[in-house]
């Protein structure tokens, strides 16, 4: 059963939070009208009295009702805390997000600057800013706000960096989405839930900080009063009337709790699904070159730095070609360099990869260099990548339909309504029932097989000449695997696109592909037609083929094992 309320607002905690927030709001709005006179009317006869029915929190040294003053101070205290929070959060988000999209050396510089600011205790910063802006309410608000910028900036930077490292952001960049688009469409929606929680947490910290500054005489000045100032006045009479000090203290604690509870509920409601790695798809650009050859790779070498910073070559002199409409498979053990090779072809390797190749091109476009704007458009439309993990192949904070329409809208300039229409047709063409409804859903609302089909659909939104499928069926059960392979086959038939299919499973690859490239230790050790795998010459290929059980396999014998040298060892395995 689903109620119409957001998820976070259901249950007792949600109800209590809503009631608390509502009561606080009422006090903030109405208190000055209802208790204004009691809070300001002086009465010498009622001076410094303890709690009574007429004055539940007693009176101050001018005979004013302390409870009324506490209630009226709610408005100033909360507004100043929210003002300080707005300064801290907006400053922190701008600094943190901008730092993530800066080029590497500048990013390090800004990150180090944030760290230096963080090393100062916030109170010291707040006092420093108070001195600059003076001991006034607005000065203290700016002081508390600016003192919070470094911690919010650090948090934003960490969260945003974890998003910008995801495949869907890398793919979006390749597709031509600029820094502003990446921030607005990918980073902000994904960091919003934790940021909301932290904003509310910071609001309660700001409330406390502000009360602290006013208590020290650096915040609100007489005749104005906030909770901090009331606390300062109450402390002086704590032995005569403890409630004069406890009253504002209770108000600060309760309001802090309400702000924290609002934050956790908002965060819970806003979070759609946990963000996980791996995502999306990519595309490629245009140029001269042999029209008969779609992908040309010659002597590709890819290295990554190890922990000591030394470059280690992971792909060692790979050469391959893919012709239009061909289905080429790459098989090999884990770590043999299949994905790195494929990502190099797609131009999706990160900046940490050192790429060296005599030739690395897709439709004549040099994929070792950053694509030009004109090439990006072709990449966006003509190259699609389907990754292994379907849950994380899509941006969790955008609906499936929105992600599908991005290609048409970014590169074809198709109007929104037409793009939506096309997205529905494409979803239907990859076998997704009720495509209208599915397009409105978020990735986590789809099954694994559906997500993978939606990914293939994303590729079909353009005019794919090549689909790179990096272990697209590994995370799926056998039945769903078959459906996904069928969708890929149909897509190839309809669009004439070539497919580069990566898998551990030589039986799957030989059944699906025209040609098979066998990789071992970063090299292609053999290239063989799928139909003639039995005639493979390399011992490693023969070992892979021998490991595939078939109808005639003797089940009483141990499974063959591929040894270090790549041959078959008849070791026993349970
Ligand atoms: N970003 C990276 N930084 C450092 N090393 C990397 C990086 N990406 C890949 N590698 C290394 O490159 C080698 C080849 O990785 P790759 O992902 O291509 O293997 P694979 O054959 O696709 O394996 P699997 O089937 O397990 O995905 C591995 O040793 C891997 O650790």
UniProtKB/TrEMBL annotation:
Family the entry assigns: Belongs to the binding-protein-dependent transport system permease family.
Membrane association type: Multi-pass membrane protein; Peripheral membrane protein
Residues passing through the membrane, by range: 12-35, 78-102, 109-133, 139-159, 171-188, 200-218, 239-262
Biological processes, Gene Ontology terms: transmembrane transport
PANTHER family: DIPEPTIDE TRANSPORT ATP-BINDING PROTEIN DPPD, OLIGOPEPTIDE TRANSPORT ATP-BINDING PROTEIN APPD
Protein name (database record): ABC-type dipeptide/oligopeptide/nickel transport system ATPase component
Species this chain originates from: Nonomuraea fuscirosea
Lineage: Bacteria, Bacillati, Actinomycetota, Actinomycetes, Streptosporangiales
Localization in the cell: Cell membrane; Membrane
Keyword annotations: ATP-binding, Cell membrane, Membrane, Nucleotide-binding, Transmembrane, Transmembrane helix, Transport
Domain ABC transmembrane type-1: 74-263
Assigned GO CC terms: plasma membrane
Keyword Transport found: yes
Domain ABC transporter: 295-546
Any one Gene Ontology molecular-function term assigned to this protein's record: ATP hydrolysis activity
Pfam families reported in the protein's UniProt record: ABC_tran (PF00005), BPD_transp_1 (PF00528)
């Amino acid at each position: 059963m689903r109620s119409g309320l957001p998820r976070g607002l259901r249950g007792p905690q949600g109800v209590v939070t809503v009631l608390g927030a509502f009561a606080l709001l009422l006090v903030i709005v109405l208190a000055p009208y209802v208790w204004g006179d009691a809070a300001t009317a002086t009465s010498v006869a009622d001076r410094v009295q303890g709690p009574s029915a007429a004055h539940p929190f007693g009176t101050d040294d001018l005979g004013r009702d302390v409870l009324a003053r506490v209630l009226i101070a709610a408005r100033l205290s909360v507004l100043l805390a929210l003002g300080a929070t707005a300064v801290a959060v907006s400053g922190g988000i701008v600094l943190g997000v901008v730092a993530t999209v800066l080029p590497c050396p500048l990013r390090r510089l800004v990150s180090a600057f944030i760290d230096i600011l963080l090393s100062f205790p916030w109170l010291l910063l707040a006092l420093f800013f108070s001195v600059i802006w003076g001991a006034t309410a607005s000065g203290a608000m700016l002081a508390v706000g600016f003192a919070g910028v470094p911690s919010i900036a650090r948090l934003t930077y960490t969260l945003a960096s974890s998003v910008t490292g995801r495949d869907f952001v890398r793919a979006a960049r390749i597709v031509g989405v600029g820094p502003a688009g990446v921030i607005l469409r990918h980073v902000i929606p994904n960091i919003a839930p934790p940021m909301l929680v932290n904003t509310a947490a910071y609001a309660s910290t700001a409330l406390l900080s502000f009360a602290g500054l006013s208590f020290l005489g650096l915040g609100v000045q007489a005749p104005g009063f906030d909770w901090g100032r009331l606390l300062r006045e109450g402390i002086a009479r704590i032995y005569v009337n403890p409630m004069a000090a406890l009253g504002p203290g209770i108000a600060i604690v309760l309001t802090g709790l309400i702000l924290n509870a609002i934050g956790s509920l908002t965060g819970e409601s806003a979070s759609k699904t946990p963000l996980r790695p791996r995502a999306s798809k990519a595309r490629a650009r245009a140029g001269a070159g042999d029209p008969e050859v779609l992908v040309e790779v010659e002597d590709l070498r890819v290295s990554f730095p190890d922990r000591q910073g030394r470059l280690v070559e992971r792909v060692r002199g790979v050469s391959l070609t893919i012709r239009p409409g061909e289905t080429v498979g790459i098989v090999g053990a884990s770590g043999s360099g299949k994905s790195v090779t494929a990502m190099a072809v797609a131009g999706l390797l990160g900046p940490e990869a050192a790429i060296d190749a005599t030739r690395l091109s897709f439709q004549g476009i040099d994929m070792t260099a950053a694509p030009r704007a004109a090439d990006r458009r072709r990449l966006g439309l003509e190259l699609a990548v389907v990754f292994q993990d379907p849950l994380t192949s899509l941006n969790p904070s955008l609906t499936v339909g929105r992600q599908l329409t991005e290609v048409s809208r970014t590169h074809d300039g198709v109007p929104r309504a037409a793009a939506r229409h096309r997205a529905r047709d494409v979803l239907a063409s990859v076998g997704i029932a009720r495509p209208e409804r599915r397009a409105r859903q978020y990735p986590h609302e789809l099954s694994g097989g559906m997500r993978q089909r939606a990914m293939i659909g994303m590729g079909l939104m353009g005019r794919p000449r090549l689909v790179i499928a990096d272990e697209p069926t590994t995370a799926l059960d056998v039945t769903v695997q078959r459906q996904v392979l069928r969708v890929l086959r149909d897509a190839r038939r309809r669009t004439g696109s070539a497919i580069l299919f990566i898998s551990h499973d030589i039986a799957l690859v030989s059944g699906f592909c025209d040609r098979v490239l066998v990789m071992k230790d970063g090299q292609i050790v053999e290239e063989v037609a799928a139909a003639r795998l039995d005639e493979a010459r390399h011992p490693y290929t023969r070992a892979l083929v021998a490991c595939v059980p078939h109808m005639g396999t003797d089940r009483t014998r141990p499974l063959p094992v591929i040894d270090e040298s790549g041959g078959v060892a008849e070791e026993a395995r349970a």
